Amino acid sequence: MSGFRHGAGRLGDAQLNFTFDGKPMLARAGDTVASALLANGVEVVGRSFKYHRPRGVTSSGPEEAGALVTIGAGGKADPNARATMEPVTQGLEVFSQNCFPSPKFDLMSVNGLAGAILPGSLFSAGFYYKTFMWPAALWYKFYEPSIRAAAGMGVPPKVADPDIYDRIQMFCDVAVVGGGSAGLSAALSASQSGLRVVIFDEHNDLGGQLLNEANSDQNADLEQWRKDTIAALEAADNVTVLARAVCWGRFDGNMLAAHQSVDGKVRQNYIKVQAKKIIIAAGAIERPLVFGNNDKPNVMLASAARRMLNHYGTATGKMLAVFTNNDSAYQTAFDYSDAGIKVSAVVDSRQYPSEALVDGCMSRGITLHTQAVVTEAKGWQAVRSIEIADLAANGQSVSNRRRVACDVLAHSGGWTPQVQMAAHGGKPPIYDKTIAAFVVGDQAPDTYSVGAAEGENGLLAGVAQALEAAKAACAELGGTAGAVTAPPQDRDGATNIVPLWSVPAKGKQLVDIQHDVTAADVVQSHSEGFVSVEHLKRYTTLGMANDQGRTSNVNALAIMAECRGVSIAEAGTTRFRAPIAPVSMGGFAGREIGKHFKPVRRTPMQEWHEKAGAVFVQAGMYMRPQYYPQAGETIDDAYERETEHVRKKVGICDVTSLGKIEIVGPDAAEFLDRVYINMFSTLKVGKARYGVMLREDGIVYDDGTTSRFAEDRFFMTTTTAKAGPVMAYLERCLEIDWPELKVRVSSVSERWGAMAVAGPDARATLTAAFPSVDFSNEAFPFMGVVHAEHNGAKLVILRISFSGEMAYEVYATSEHATDIWQTVVDAGQAYDIVPYGLETLGALRIEKGHVTGAELDGRVTLGDVHMDGMASKKKWFVGKNLKQREGMVHPDRPQLVGLKSVDPRTPISTGSILVTEANATAGADKQGWVSSMTYSPELGSFIALGFLRGGKDRIGERIYAAYPVKGKNVEVEVVSNHFVDPTNDRVKG
Amino acid sequence: MKKYSGFSLFKHSLSHHENWQAAWRSPQPKKEYDVIIVGGGGHGLATAYYLAKVHGITNVAVLEKGYLGGGNTARNTTIVRSNYLWDEASKLYDHSLDLWKDLSQDLNYNVMFSQRGVLNLGHNLQDMRDIERRVNANRLNGIDGVVLNTAEVKEIVPIINDSQDIRYPVLGASWQATGGVARHDAVAWGFARGADSFGVDLIQQCEVLDIVTEEGAVVGVKTNQGFIGAKKVACVTAGNSGVMAAMVGLRLPIESRPLQALVSEPIKPIIDTVVMSNAVHAYVSQSDKGDLVIGAGTDSYNGYGQRGSFNIVEHTMSAICELFPMFSRVRMNRAWGGIVDTCPDACPIISKTSVKGLFFNCGWGTGGFKATPGSGNVFAHTLAHDEAHPLAAPFSIDRFSTGHLIDEHGAAGVAH
Ligand SMILES: Cc1cc2nc3c(=O)[nH]c(=O)nc-3n(C[C@H](O)[C@H](O)[C@H](O)COP(=O)(O)OP(=O)(O)OC[C@H]3O[C@@H](n4cnc5c(N)ncnc54)[C@H](O)[C@@H]3O)c2cc1C
Question: What's the complex ipTM?
Answer without folding.
Answer: 0.95
